[in-house]
Amino acid sequence: MSPQEHPKPSLNKKTFVRELRLQGTDGIRREVRLSSSQETTNLTPQEVFLKLGFITEEFMEIYAYAHIKQLMSTGKIQTGDSVIIGWDPRDPKGNYTSAVVSGICKAGVNALVLGVVPTPLVPMYMLYKNARGGLMVTASHNPRDQNGIKIFSSFQGLKLLPDNDLTLTHAVLEVKPSTLEKLTLKGKCIDSRKEALELFHNFSLAPKNTWIPPEFEKNLFKNITLVVDPANGSLSDIAAKIFHQLGFGNVIEINSKLNGDVNLKSGVADLEGKAIITREMIEKGTGIFSKHLAITKLLDLGQKNRTLVAKGDKKICGAVFDADGDRFYRLDYDASKDALIVMSGDEAAFFQAKHLITSNPKQYKGTTYINTVESDFNASVAAKKLGFLPVLTPVGDKWILLKIALLTAEKKIRAAKKLKGTKVLATSILEKWKNIQNKDSLNVLNIEELESELNQFFKINKAEGYVANSNKNDLFSIGSEETGHCITEGYLTFKNETQVSVFFGNGVKSAINTFVATQFLLESKPTRAYFANLTRPFPPGYKQTFYTYYVNKKLFHKNSQLWNQVKTSIYQEGRNKGFSPRFTSFSAEPDMLYIKLSSKKNENAAIFVRNSGTENKIGVNLRGSMKSAAKLKSIGEKCIKILLYSMKDFENHLCKLEKSILNQLIFGSVLNTKLKLKKPAGERVLSEMAKQGLIRLTRDGHTLTVLGKWYLSIKKQDG
Predict the structure, then answer these.
(1) CA-CA 20 to 30 A from 461: which of 380, 496, 518, 544?
(2) In sequence order, what are the residues at sequence separation of 6 or more whose Cβ sits closer than 8 angstroms to the Cβ of residue 545?
(3) DSSP classification of residue 673
(4) How confident is the model over 243-274, as pLDDT tens digits?
(5) How confident is the model over 351-368, as pLDDT tens digits?
(6) CA dist 397 to 159, 350, 490, 601, Å?
(7) Preceding amide of 581 cis, omega within 30
(8) Domains and their CATH numbers in the chain
């Protein structure tokens, strides 16, 4: 991912430092290069990141060190305190993970090392140990040639917000590599893996977290054969054991090698945008999932048990995760179609929410159902019909976590105002709340300070009972992203048996809760109705995204020439098709171009264009009703042509490989074996070219699409 900045970055001019943000949607994430690589010669780690777009192990060390030092400067951590660190297994040699541990220890704090663990365990164990922070070394669903760092705040496990990102960016750019190199390890490295894994195991199986009533704990899943795909990632040998203990009839783990091949022909990323996987899709040579072992295994098992599945006596299902285990997709074999139903985060969240409100309407009616702009338009509509209050946020589970924290703070403020016989709320509390509401300061520290002052207010006024009541969750039900993050309330039990509510993206919890929900909501239905409901739990809207990969992200930001060009195109094309367009600004993500479309025929839709915060791409996202599909697609096709023409970064090594492949296909189809590819980047580029719609795979090999031919022709015209 490219840094999100408006002016060209300069390491020598401090006036630009505050304009530069190294982080994307969730921390840093880039392709990796060792500092010993020839291409990094004579460049500092910061310059390699900014100029070449790579993360080195030295940059990882600097980033971790700068984060701890920045926390020290604010008084949030002191020498000798502890922070938690875990990672996914994409770095089997430990070049990058050991660098992060080194950065933590050089800063003067202890590193409680968890090793290969799922992301949600880092904030969970952080709260359990009362540690002062948490770092997860991962690039999540991104390809194996990338890595990064996600950071968790000690306050409720929130992730860093824009102001925190800017402050950390400044701190990172100020670190002198030569100075850091001379420092010794002042903090200790403490192996905490065993205790942390036991905590995750107990948390995952606790009835309050699984939603399994005691009378059903032994037989709820007995007729389900479950194929677990941890994407060769953090949940390898962890998730399958949990599912087995929950009583699934048969648990089969596939793609669990800890050899660095994370997300390779596995995991959730390749399932995005797919509603069904047919047998043709696994055909050798031409099927896009022909090398996906979990998918081929599911279809094989389905075919062998087709009669039993058709009768409803058996279910063949898949639980698919990403490399760091915070995202989940579900697969179900439908015997009538001899195909797999793909359940994304939207459908999983809907089932979970419906189960909650069905089982306890008094508690959940009127609570918030949060999803991001990526979700199906109709998911919010369906949630509202169930009795929830839909809330829309920018992309990223950190915005869901922030909304939950603000709901809690708002409830406490209302409770404080109702207290009789107390002084008016302190001006500082009201001022902080006003600033946070106005998004003037999206900073975790400000929210933590507000919470602290509110608690102190209740204490002074001898109303601690209000604090306990205000912490009770009666405002929020579920937060979700279409890409697989689902967040519901969890209960973390401490050694003294006290419990606290926690809210983390947790693939295992989401999977368990989804299976519980469908078992209770659908089990009594006839087989045909069961699969019909799985396929369409709510009337789906139109949802499609057009991508351009290997781009210069600096060209697209609010009010840039390209930003305005795309905006003008959407307005013109929208009006031509009977829509009234209206730009909507998201203060949390100001550079996203989000345009609502409405019509006199009661058609409501949205088109939003944004640089990915996790990958080197930009997307044109189309969301609306099915009757608007053709109109939206036409607008989207025009927008993506503008971006394809204007944003490609031809100095990028993957873009050069893409160009080479396009030129090889100019005269017709070419078999993979005949393509000149640089491995392993070649297979990745082929996959991403297909996602852009530039090429497609046929029985004769890869060939250009209509869009691919257009793109190649305009590039040739430009020389």
Answers:
(1) 496
(2) 273, 619, 620, 621, 622
(3) G
(4) 999 999 999 999 999 999 999 999 999 999 99
(5) 999 999 999 999 999 999
(6) 9, 17, 16, 34
(7) no
(8) 14-192 (3.40.120.10), 206-343 (3.40.120.10), 350-482 (no CATH), 541-649 (3.30.310.50), 650-719 (1.10.10.10)
